[in-house]
Amino acid sequence: MDQEIFTLEIIGIATTYFDNIENLNGREKLYGNVGLTYKITDKLKIAGYLRKDQSFGTSEVKIPQIIENSALQTGIKATYAASDFMKKEHNYEVLATYADRFFSDKLSFELNGGGNIRKDQFYSFGSSTRDGLVVPDLFTFSNSKTAAIPSNARLAKEVRSLFLRGSLGFNSWAYLDFSARNDWSSALPKDNNSYLYPSVGGSIIFTEFIKNTNILNYGKIRASWAQVGSDLGSLSTTA
Q1: Strand partners, 225
Q2: How far is CA 100 from CA 71, 107, 206, in A?
Q3: Rg (CA), the chain
Q4: What is the pLDDT at residue 149?
Q5: pLDDT: which is higher, 13 or 133
Q6: Which residues, in sequence order, are bridge partners of residue 123?
Q7: What is the rounded CA–CA span in Å between residue 145 and residue 141?
């Protein structure tokens, strides 16, 4: 029983000291989209979209002198650290859609095609005191015993895309779908920054042929093939 009490006391002391550390984080987010669709005919329409996703964040860490002086000292110094970041993503997209039916509505056809430009940006700045604080619990960078060294990072990336997607349907039981997309990424070398990823698939609703049975109400067989492409992360500069 004595051993259990001793263990609980040690945990209590550690928790009391480290509760003095302040770790403050803040974040704001702004996002939204605007779209406009124009119907050229009953079968053809064109749409444009603008989408934005933006985040701001701040962080502050304050380690007071009591941690540095405590009996549980493990090399932790009184410290002040702060950082902030900003992240942006913008998407600009144009999409055209055509849909029609032929041969007494037995054959359906739909085709979508368009382009997209995505721009990513990231910026961060931060700094931290080193080797403790000259004046106890004065949390400023200039109060660092050894000069604080700031750091920052900038990341940027732009991807331009063209895409096409289509679907053929026959008599509401057989379907053929296909798509293709090509991206050009600023994260890749200029002479080799393009990558294509196509796909094709087909499906058959076989229960259309066994309607007079009560065994199965709906059943579909589907097969598809796709090739996936990707690029690298954002280009970055750090200091």
Answers
A1: 200
A2: 79, 9, 24
A3: 30
A4: 87
A5: 133
A6: 86, 154
A7: 9
Please say whether the structural domain 23-238 has been given the CATH code 3.40.630.30.
Answer: no
Neighbours of 236 (CB within 10 A): 12
Q: The whole model's pTM is what?
A: 0.76
> Whats the size of the chain, residue-wise?
239
| Percent of the chain clearing pLDDT 90 (strictly above) | 66
Planar angle of CA 49, 47, 194, nearest 5 degrees: 70
Closest CA to 25 of 57, 47, 1, 73: 57
DSSP string for the chain: -HHHHHHHHHHHHHHHHHTT-EEEEEEEEEEEEEEEEEESSSSEEEEEEEEEEEEEEEEEEEE-HHHHHSTT-SS---EEEEEEEEEEEEEEEEEEEEEEEETTTTEEEEEEEEEEEEEEEEEEEEEE-EEEESSTT---GGGEEE----EEEEEEEEEEEEEEEEEEEETTTEEEEEEEEEEEETTS-GGG-EEEEEEEEEEE-GGGG-TT-SS-S---EEEEEE--------EEEE-
Which pLDDT band, with edges at 50, 70 and 90, does 184 fall under? very high
